[in-house]
Design goal:
216 residues, alpha+beta, 47% helix, 4-stranded antiparallel β-sheet, NADH Oxidase
């Protein structure tokens, strides 16, 4: 593959929210997950787990759980400060119920030696506490699972599938963990809804000059 082919895959990927009813073969999904596990990850910990859900009732149960929490939040008096945004978020909370497949992503809590030392010293040393806070802004485990998901999305694009990476379902983490019998000691980090696309979204990116600078 030359750089132009890779560029086409990267730039062709979009978040797809409408899918055909066509079933996604198990071997296709397995290959996507396998390749995702080759993503970079902290300490080669490989503390990820992927639960691939094709059962329509289970997907419906997850979507209903997310919608119930979204409706609850939208009903709070505090939410009237953002009526249009809140209604849009409530309305779009559970569209993934129509996806042929939902992949729940989980990750374990990785700690390097530095993290362990900071955890012990942090409460008694303000400087150590500050360093610990910096590291918690983007914990290694989250960076690792994010790399795996990003890799998987590109694999899906190359396979002709359309997917969307969902963080909103985390509002119903407790319910989804119960529905899926979540792996012990692991945290739900999101859902990936995937299937054969029934839309072709077009959204551009900012010019690279706006988001990049050199220090020479």
């Amino acid at each position: 593959m030359d750089i132009q082919e890779l560029e086409n895959i990267i730039k062709g990927r979009r978040s797809v929210r409408r899918w055909k009813s066509q079933e996604v073969p198990d071997d296709v999904l397995k290959k996507a997950v396998e390749l995702a596990t080759w993503a970079p990850n902290g300490g080669n910990f490989q503390g990820w787990r992927f639960i691939v859900v094709k059962n329509r009732q289970v997907i419906e149960n997850m979507a209903n759980a997310v919608q119930a929490v979204a409706d609850k939040i939208a009903s709070w008096p505090e939410s009237v400060a953002w009526p249009e945004e809140m209604e849009r978020a409530r309305k779009n909370a559970s569209y993934f119920r129509n996806a042929p497949v939902c992949i729940a992503t989980f990750v374990g809590r990785y700690q390097s030696a530095i993290d362990k030392a900071l955890e012990v010293r942090g409460p008694s040393d303000p400087a150590a506490g500050e360093i610990r806070a910096f590291r918690r802004m983007a914990p290694t485990s989250i960076q690792s699972i994010a790399a795996a998901v990003a890799t998987m999305l590109l694999v899906f694009q190359q396979m002709g599938l359309g997917a969307v990476w969902l963080g909103a379902p985390l509002m119903a983490t407790k319910e989804i963990n119960s529905i899926l019998k979540a792996p012990e000691g692991m945290d739900l980090t999101g859902l990936i809804a995937v299937g054969y696309p029934d839309e072709s979204p077009k959204r551009d990116r900012k010019p690279v000059e706006q988001v990049m600078e050199f220090i020479r």
